[in-house]
Amino acid sequence: MLPDLAKRDDAIGAKAFVKYWFAVANHAIATGDTAPLAAISAKDCGSCDALAASVRKSFKDGGHIDGGALHVVGLELDPRLKPPLFRFALRLRQDPKRVLNPAGMAVTRESGASALFFVAARRVGAAFEFVGMERIDD
């Protein structure tokens, strides 16, 4: 459920919404259900589409993902942009993950990682939508 703070029409609301988006992404990673993620993502969000496609592929034919949760470690507003677009520098950490086939055998393994991104949310009417993310470190 969308937190009340994420309903605010300001930078505080945008920050809460971005954190909520990652909670919904974690739900998709854990369950394979990408519909809630699509519902709060911009239609032209390439990074959103890529994440959803990766999750769907992992769950195809009864597979699943073990681990892989995303953790927002730091989130700082870029004050140069003005509403309705809000951009943040985000430090994201992902837990180690395994993609398992229906028999429970690991198809892929990834170690945990941390990276810095720019992420953006846009106010559209009475709600925010996630616009995308771009990695800014190597």
Automatic annotation (TrEMBL):
Pfam families: DUF6318. Residues 2-112 form the DUF6318 domain. This is DUF6318 domain-containing protein. The lineage of its organism: Bacteria, Bacillati, Actinomycetota, Actinomycetes, Propionibacteriales.
